[in-house]
Amino acid sequence: MFATLSDRLTSTFRNLRTRGRLSEADIDATIREIRRALLDADVAVPVVRAFTGTVRERALSAEVSGALNPAQQVVKIVQEELVAILGGEQRPLRFAKRPPTVILLAGLQGAGKTTLAGKLGLHLRERGHTPLLVAADLQRPNAVTQLQVVGERAGVPVFAPHPGVQETAAGLVGTPGDPVGVAREGLAWAQERQHDVVIVDTAGRLGVDAEMMQQAADIRDAVDPDEILFVVDAMIGQDAVTTAQAFAEGVGFTGVVLAKLDGDTRGGAALSIASVTGSPVMFASTGEKLTDFEVFHPDRMASRILD
Ligand code: GDP
């Protein structure tokens, strides 16, 4: 992840280091290389434009610091602007004043929502919370069973009154049922049993689809979430940005989870999402195991890219 982008940027800065004072032409040449590196890494065009514009302006106005040479100053500016496009400060989960805190997971099918429900459940349990997972994905075959398996591994209970659609030797059986009802009942169940966090897994489709958006919006209206986390497969490249925009309009979200960040991806789309949607990246999912999960720190990610 980010290996190529990281290589390209570090070699750009290596060339810069051989210079003493930087002329405007030096800065422009550097900006051109940064622009190419970002575009090649799949960062969305408007994000690249804004990013390079700001870096150029700041580099030219040279906020002179005695401790840094000109090249180091440019690196520092790029580092700070990378942090900014990744959402700035690490944004912690917002807990409800009165529990339970409701976290809704939204995203395309296969993005990694169900897996994330288990990871987040485990993460919260380890921090003294008493989460409940609610299986409101009744669409995808075996999604309910999968959540139950994940919940068991994480040691987090699962509310699943409805088996959803099941895949059997005889083909698909069962009906999608009423996910809004399940979400509502799940919340009531959590209140009765004093779970302090409720994580609601919702259905996704393979592509953006009006019916799915409506269902997620209906669940949102039924449970009034404190956080809506948009889970996106970082491997889907530029499509991640268009999908994020569609979800931002259709359901709205308060934070982003970059899933499959362990994969072989150019990563630029992931860099663009926070900037394009104005929602911070809060977590990263980095593998299939429950422990492959990180709280996302924009500054650490920026340092990793510029290392
Ligand atoms: P959902 O349809 O959004 O609920 O997605 P799932 O949680 O079922 O994940 C889809 C597939 O991606 C499953 O095979 C998961 O094991 C896998 N997966 C989920 N998260 C990650 C991740 O961070 N890295 C990798 N490599 N695979 C993941």
Automatic annotation (TrEMBL):
It catalyses: GTP + H2O = GDP + phosphate + H(+). It is found in: Cytoplasm. Its EC number is 3.6.5.4. GTP binds at residues 107-114, 201-205, 259-262. One of its GO terms (molecular function) is 7S RNA binding. Keywords: Cytoplasm, GTP-binding, Hydrolase, Nucleotide-binding, Ribonucleoprotein, RNA-binding, Signal recognition particle. GO terms for biological process: SRP-dependent cotranslational protein targeting to membrane. GO terms for cellular component: signal recognition particle. Residues 280-293 form the SRP54-type proteins GTP-binding domain. Composed of three domains: the N-terminal N domain, which is responsible for interactions with the ribosome, the central G domain, which binds GTP, and the C-terminal M domain, which binds the RNA and the signal sequence of the RNC. Part of the signal recognition particle protein translocation system, which is composed of SRP and FtsY. Involved in targeting and insertion of nascent membrane proteins into the cytoplasmic membrane. Binds to the hydrophobic signal sequence of the ribosome-nascent chain (RNC) as it emerges from the ribosomes. The SRP-RNC complex is then targeted to the cytoplasmic membrane where it interacts with the SRP receptor FtsY. Belongs to the GTP-binding SRP family. SRP54 subfamily. This is Signal recognition particle protein. It comes from Actinotalea fermentans. The gene is ffh. The chain holds residues 1 to 307 of 537 of the full protein.
